[in-house]
Amino acid sequence: MEQHPGPDCDKTSCSSCSSRTSCGGIPEPPPRAETVPEDQKLRQRLGQIRRKIMVMSGKGGVGKSTVATNLAVHLMLAGQRVGLLDVDIHGPSIPGMLHLDHARVIGDGEALLPLDYSGLKVMSIGFLLPNADDAVIWRGPMKMTVIRQFLEDVAWGDLDCLVVDLPPGTGDEPLSVCQLAAPVDGAVIVTTPQRISTSDVRRSIRFCQKTDIPVLGVVENMSGFVCPKCGEITHIFKAGGGERMAAEMGVPFFGRVPLDPRIGVASDDGVPFICNQASPESVQTFDRIAASIQAL
216: how many CB neighbours lie within 10 A of its CB? Predict the structure, then answer.
């Protein structure tokens, strides 16, 4: 896999590069089969995936990775064959959320094998870094290259749904996914209730509209703090901002996920909260998302 170049990098191979240590030493994937054109190989791989769903937001820190992880697990628990692709190149969170921090990807000679989490197939740049704290210092073209390899060179197999966790914004990563994985079947938009968040998240909805990606709906995350002692809900970030934004933008509203301390504990422990810590309201929200996806 191509990496950011060191001072002596010839941009051809990592194995003989004198800058391997200084630039991170990210392993290269298995070589592509020269007998199969790249576009054909990509189409073949994507042809085995029934639905491709992006989880995105124009704002950082709203819980996209939490929603993406728990959505993927929720679909898997419902009997779907699911993959979870983390394309947050600079800040991969999925490995930690599934307690796969120290896992590493291997190849079978023809493809990269995704990590397995109780049947969920998972891929992230975090599985390719020598150390979890390593920074990936790449420009746009290099990010598009690695996203292509995640789609083309990973042995996803037959999937009912591939959930793609995107970084904040509407730049290189979402545009690369839109172009390489076309047609993308839909997007789930994540926001928190306060205006400063919803004003940024609107741009993600506009992005989807301009790229002909259906907006399946909006999730209002961190919607009210749940007291761990008495269960009372306090609206730290006000309430209803995501629902109002969805109505104003003319897109569906899935529901709310409360700000529950148990969710933070579950995420730090690498256990998706949808398995055993989700509130009834959160479960209903993910049920609506799943129903929307399965209806595609």
Answer: 23
pLDDT, average across residues 168-182: 93
- Alpha-helix residue ranges (DSSP H) falling in 22-133: 38-46, 64-77, 94-97
What's the domain count of the chain? 1
- Distance (Å, whole) CA 101 – CA 112: 18
Report residue 287 as tokens. Answer: 């049920």
Orientation angle between helical segments 140-152 and 172-180, nearest 10 degrees: 40
Q: Which residue range is the domain that position 167 belongs to?
A: 38-294
Of all helices (H) and strands (E), which one includes residue 152? Answer: helix 140-152
The arithmetic mean of pLDDT across residues 226-239, rounded, is: 79
Residue pair 147/180 in contact by the 8 Å Cβ criterion: yes
Q: Examine residue 179 and state whether it is found in any structural domain, yes or no.
A: yes
* 15 found inside a domain: no
User: pLDDT higher for 25 or 288?
Assistant: 288
- Tell me if 220 sits within 8 A of 284, measured CB to CB: no
13 is a domain residue: no
**CATH number for the domain that contains residue 114:** 3.40.50.300
Q: Where are the beta strands (DSSP E) in the chain?
A: 52-56, 82-86, 106-107, 112-113, 115-117, 120-124, 161-165, 186-191, 215-226, 233-234, 253-259
Across the strands, what pairs with 234? 225
Confidence of residue 137 (pLDDT cuts 50, 70, 90): confident
